Amino acid sequence: MTAFQKLVEMPLTGRNDSYAPADFAERVLPIHPQTDEGRRRLNYATHFLLGTMWGSAYGLVAARGMRGKRAVTVVFGTVYTGDVMLNTSLGLYQPSTWSSRDWVIDVGEKFIQAAATGAAFDRFLDPNRRAS
Questions:
Q1: Cα separations (Å) of 19 from 25, 43, 58, 60, 92?
Q2: 52 or 128, higher pLDDT
Q3: What secondary structure does DSSP assign to the chain, as a single string?
Q4: In whole angstroms, how far apart are CA 41 and each of 6, 10, 33?
Q5: Are 35 and 77 in contact (CB under 8 A)?
Q6: Can you tell me the mean pLDDT for 37-43?
Q7: What is the C-alpha to C-alpha distance for residues 111 and 117, in angstroms, rounded to an integer?
Q8: CA separation (Å) from 124 to 8, 61, 62, 102, 127?
Q9: Helix axis angle, 68-89 relative to 100-120, nearest 10°?
Q10: Which pLDDT band, with edges at 50, 70 and 90, does 29 fall under?
Q11: Among 53, 57, 71, 84, which residue's Cβ finds the most Cβ atoms within 10 Å?
């Protein structure tokens, strides 16, 4: 889970942990935990790897010279669209059944993730950033 999900969104909405990342990993990899603890670990590991993918996407866009809001918009649009399409094609998502609240939570959280990734990259990881 992201810090935003755990500390802000879930307490506000009363939503339980999402196991969508674990569902994805179990669908595409030969990994099938036998215990609740194993599934929880898989879920967190997959969350971490998906976050790394967002960071890698931002790094690729930054390498092409984009930064800030423009780069976040490009990364979010590309990665989010791919995420929904892939998970829908795997039978893990059914966006046509989502409520407006579900859409707001999903889009909002993933946009915040893209923005936080961009801010962290631009502030701490950008190899072209001048030391202050």
A1: 10, 6, 25, 28, 11
A2: 52
A3: --HHIIIIIHHHH-PPPP-HHHHHHHHHSS---SSHHHHHHHHHHHHHHHHHHHHHHHHHHHHTT--HHHHHHHHHHHHHHHHHHHHHHTTS--GGG--HHHHHHHHHHHHHHHHHHHHHIIIII-TTPPP-
A4: 16, 19, 9
A5: no
A6: 96
A7: 10
A8: 24, 16, 13, 32, 9
A9: 130
A10: very high
A11: 71
Token readout for 14 is 């009363």
Quick one: which of 103, 114, 105 has its CA closest to 51?
Answer: 114
The amino acid at 23: D
Q: Which residue has the tokens 């609740």?
A: 36
Confidence (pLDDT) at 87: 96
Check residue 9 and give its pLDDT: 86
Q: What is the Cα–Cα distance from 71 to 54, expressed in whole angstroms?
A: 12
**Within 13 Å and on the Cβ side, how many CA atoms surround 30?**
0
* Structure tokens belonging to residue 76: 């979010």
Q: Quick one: average pLDDT of 40-51? A: 93
Token reading at 49: 């790897």
